[in-house]
Amino acid sequence: MATCCAPRINPPSTDELAEQLVNPAAVVVDVRPMAAYNGWRLQGEKRGGHLPGAVACPLGWTAAMATDEFAAFLSAKGITPANTVVLYGYTAGDAEAARGAD
What pLDDT shows up at residue 60? Predict the structure, then answer.
């Protein structure tokens, strides 16, 4: 899809994630299904919902978007090449799949 984002994928520690949540240059992107983002506990989570301030971008959406649509989506969400983008999903594979969409 669109070329833009971070050149590496490294799972953040809890402390690193907490730092990014308050970093104004960071955008946290939830790639789980929209129902999970909205609070449904689809995989036995103790608590449903998303991280505070996270942007929803389910993997199914990225797979269905053309490059120009994906670029417009990122722009509408305020995601630019200057941002640190933190992807999260159910597994590390979710982040890898999302990274493959850029």
Answer: 82
- Identify which has the larger pLDDT, 21 or 2: 21
Q: How far apart are CA 2 and CA 95, in angstroms?
A: 16
Q: What global pTM score does this model have?
A: 0.73
> What range defines the domain where residue 70 resides?
14-39+48-87
Encoding tokens for residue 75? 């722009």
DSSP, collapsed to helix, strand or coil, labels residue 91 as coil
Overall number of domains in the chain = 1
CATH number of the domain encompassing residue 81: 3.40.250.10
The partner residues of 26 in beta bridges, in order of sequence, read: 84
